[in-house]
Amino acid sequence: MKLLWDSVGERLYETGVKNGVLYPQNNAGLYPLGVAWNGLTAVTESPSGAEPNPIYADDIKYLNLISAEEFGATIEAYTYPDEFAACDGSGALAVGVKVGQQKRTAFGLCYRTALGNDVDAADYAYKLHLIYGAMAAPSEKAFATINDSPEAITFSWEVSTTPVAVTGFKPTASIEIDSSKVDPAKLAALEDILYGTAGADAYLPLPDEVAAIFAEAAPSAVALSSIVPADAATNVAVNANIVLTFNNKIAREAIVVTDELGGIVAGAKTWDVDGKVLTFNPTSEFTASTVYIVTITGVVDIYNQSLAAEVKNFETAV
């Protein structure tokens, strides 16, 4: 299919930050209780590392060793939850009395950014950002007298992270969920966990629990449901298209149409919106009174299930 640029509805951008939630980490490495972070103004994600370290041998570059990638961030806010005091190195001498330079508690963070496009603006979709194993470094706090141009104090923290385990992947300190691409019901279930409900406190699920929420089991083994023209059909119109229908959404294929002498038939392939129906439209009409062969191979569905190769044929009308 020919590439297109800047199609209507595909001019995407990301903006804003809101719905911040703080999750202090407990001694078991879990994030059992979330609290709303009011006044959150910015989160600047700052990954680092993943740099090439070349190794030379035989007077040439032998290979590149890539350094470990680290996730860092800067959090800015006008205020912060009381629960963040321990994360910022403060302890309570008494109610309302804090002492600084104490042990800092690790925490998790969730916030939401808007995903916009040229049709719906910032209402198109959104992304949820989950951060794990975060530690806040001491930050500068600039206090100034109120004058004729008063400004609210902005707090800022540099954050480093320690990755957590993810089954089947390298450990990570960040997860991003795109609402335009995931099942709305599963996203709602995750948000009930992140934000809490009338009957349950908010908490930050670990990556494996997030993966379990969005896991999509294959409904059945991938199969070819139908093909038109049917296998061994005769008297097929020379201007016919070939239409193959599968039971699952297909991720990739290598289907080939040839004539009885093995010559490849040129044509365009198009999928329906569900990714289950493939239409092959030949560039030129088929030749009359000719047998054509459809070799169905390389078919893999979105669940990474492969279809065993099949061969179908049909004969055109005189």
Which key features would you list for this structure?
mainly beta, 26 strands, 45% strand, single chain, four-stranded antiparallel beta sheet, 2 helices, 318 residues
Written overview of the protein:
The chain has helices at 184-195, 207-214, and strands spanning 13-24, 35-36, 40-45, 48-49, 52-57, 60-66, 69-70, 72-77, 91-94, 97-99, 107-117, 121-136, 155-161, 164-166, 169-172, 174-178, 224-228, 233-236, 242-246, 250-252, 256-259, 267-271, 277-282, 291-296, 300-301, 310-316. The protein has 318 residues and is mainly beta. The strands form eight sheets. Strands 1, 2, 3, 8, 11, 12, 13 and 16 form an eight-stranded antiparallel sheet that branches. The mean pLDDT is 92.
**Largest sheet entry:** 8 strands, antiparallel
Count of separate DSSP helical elements: 2
CA-based shape: elongated
Uncertain ranges: none
Could you give the distance between the termini? Answer: 32 Å
Q: What Rg, in angstroms, do the CA atoms define?
A: 28 Å
Work out the strand percent: 35-45%
Return the string of H and E elements: EEEEEEEEEEEEEEEEHHEEEEEEEEEE
Helix content: under 10%
- Overall strand count: 26
Please state the structural category: mainly beta
How confident is the prediction overall: mean pLDDT?
92
